[in-house]
């Protein structure tokens, strides 16, 4: 979901997931990419950021699940479950972001001030940033202590989480520009910095 510029014109089929018979997360990979590329207001940047974090957490879950020799069965299972839970929560935010943007568009079309709707919608990228930081931390730990054959997957998880956090922080800054943010822009930037630090640690940059 992007910020307070002019609202895109919308027509039939502009609702999130409309025409797909369900929510955005029920689409195939190709179907979601087609929806993202379509000239419609949603899905958009917030959904893409949430997807990046969901992918990061899923990769971390896979790496943990295949690291029993390094971590022990109990710890590997615990971390894998943690990653799966993060992935599911991030995936839910793909549809939530689209729904939030639809509320912003509805406010604009009704001639209302969209500030309140933008503030509410910004809760979604805030949650994306929080999950991104957690996924990056998980991936970084696995890059150092997990199955060495899957270190590349763990590193990829961290980098995807970094991208999701940076995008989410940018969206929050755009959405809340010129209005009270309740500390969310600064908190989102802090979370993005944390994920960037994890990325620097695992890539040596």
Quick structural summary:
With 205 residues, the protein is mainly alpha-helical. The chain is 71% helix and 0% strand.
Explain what the structure shows.
With 205 residues, this protein is mostly helical. Helix 2 packs antiparallel against helix 4 (73-109) and helix 6 packs parallel to helix 8 (184-203). It has helices spanning 29-37, 45-65, 68-71, 73-109, 115-121, 123-145, 151-175, 184-203. The protein has 8 helices and no strands. The two termini are 31 Å apart. The radius of gyration is 18 Å and the shape is globular.
How are helices and strands ordered from N to C? Answer: HHHHHHHH
Low-confidence stretches: 3-20
Distance between the termini: 31 Å
Q: Tell me, rounded to a whole number, the average pLDDT.
A: 88
Discrete helix count: 8
Radius of gyration: 18 Å
Q: How helical, in percent, are the residues?
A: over 70%
Shape: globular
Please report which band the strand proportion falls in: under 5%, 5-15%, 15-25%, 25-35%, 35-45% or over 45%.
Answer: under 5%
Q: Count the strands? A: 0
| Largest beta-sheet characterization | none
The oligomeric state is: single chain
Structural class, from secondary structure content?
A: mainly alpha
């Amino acid at each position: 979901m992007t910020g307070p510029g002019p609202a895109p014109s919308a027509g039939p089929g502009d609702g999130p997931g409309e025409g797909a018979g369900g929510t955005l997360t029920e689409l195939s990979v190709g179907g979601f990419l087609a929806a993202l590329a379509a000239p419609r207001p949603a899905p958009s940047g917030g959904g893409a950021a949430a997807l990046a974090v969901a992918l990061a957490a899923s990769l971390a879950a896979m790496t943990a699940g295949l690291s029993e020799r390094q971590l022990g069965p109990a710890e590997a299972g615990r971390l894998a479950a943690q990653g799966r839970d993060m992935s599911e929560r991030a995936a839910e935010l793909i549809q939530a972001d689209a729904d939030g943007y639809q509320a912003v568009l509805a406010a604009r079309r009704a001639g209302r001030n969209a500030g309140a709707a933008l503030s509410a919608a910004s809760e979604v990228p805030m949650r994306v940033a929080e999950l991104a930081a957690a996924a990056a931390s998980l991936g970084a730990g696995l890059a150092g202590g997990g199955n060495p054959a899957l270190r590349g997957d763990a590193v990829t998880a961290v980098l995807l989480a970094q991208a999701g956090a940076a995008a989410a922080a940018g969206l929050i800054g755009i959405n809340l520009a010129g209005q009270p943010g309740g500390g969310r822009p600064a908190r989102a930037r802090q979370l993005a910095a944390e994920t960037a630090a994890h990325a620097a640690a695992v890539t040596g940059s």
